[in-house]
Amino acid sequence: MPKLRTLVLVAGAALLTRRALRRRVQASPLWPLPALDPPISGRPRSQALRLLVASRETVAEGVVQLRLEGRGLPRWEPGAHLDLVLPSGLVRQYSLCGDPEDTSSYTVATRLVEDGRGGSREVHEQVTEGMELVVRGPRNRFPLVEAPSYVFVAGGIGITPLLPMLRALPEHAEWRLLYAGRDRASMPFLEEVEKLGGGGRVTVVEGRPDLDALEVSEGAAVYACGPEGLMAAVAARFPDVRLERFAPRTSSEGNAEFEVELRRSGRTLTVAADSTVLAAVRRELPVTAYSCGQGFCGTCQQRVLEGEIDHRDELLTDEERGDSMLICVSRARSDRLVLDM
Ligand code: FES
Questions:
Q1: Tens digits of per-residue pLDDT, 12-36?
Q2: Residue 118, CB half-sphere, CA atoms under 13 Å: how many?
Q3: What is the pLDDT of residue 218?
Q4: Which of 5, 68, 163, 281 has the fewest CB within 10 Å, making it most exposed?
């Protein structure tokens, strides 16, 4: 009996702590963090929110799902993602895979990548229920367009941005999904996806998919998300494919050296073929803001006054590309760029 009383007391204390945390988050759901969103080019990219990790659940082998609670959260459209600011300060992007109409929580899922860049390991090993995380977004660079039919290709965790699209399509919509993964146990949301597919819309492949067997009718919108190799193969077969990337394209092949003038600082720098504008700028101006270093978060965005930009990010809109660049990844097509800094 004393044992039972102790258990009840411990469970009660945990519940109270969690409720207290939730009340704290709900009291200040929107918490602007200007330092994370410097108004570069006068266009702050998104607001930062501090959310409670309300649940953490393993949804497939090596995949955890986080539900992040807040209040009055911005709605989002299928394909949108969040920036998560991890406890170490790393910023990583994760597709939203919950209900876009839910204004009290966001859901994301992440696969542990053993030899990755550290973000997924941090989520898996350090993010626990009851802790608070800062997020930014949601943002959508992978929107669901109107089309007569759809073909989706997902590789493993790449199903996450596609799942809300499948849920959002009307019942009569014509769509096919090719969902590939190592094996069924490692493929998140498989059961739901198969249920959504009903009569034969979903093809599940354990191992490498045969893209040549994929039929795409005239005018169909093709979407793909997954490992870089899969997306490259889909892009080679369907040049108009819409891709969602969460890892940078790393090859520096074909890169050339160029000059960057920092007009307001009165300095001129050389960017080597195997380096970045950001690295060169930070050697001169060490306080230059950046975060992800991969062209995803927008922190390093700078206005360009002269020169032709070689945009290599996955974030800026066409309008923004007219006069600004993300200096962590983008380069120059001309011999020289002039930045407003
Ligand atoms: Fe994140 Fe450049 S630092 S886009």
A1: 554 444 454 444 444 333 333 333 3
A2: 8
A3: 92
A4: 5
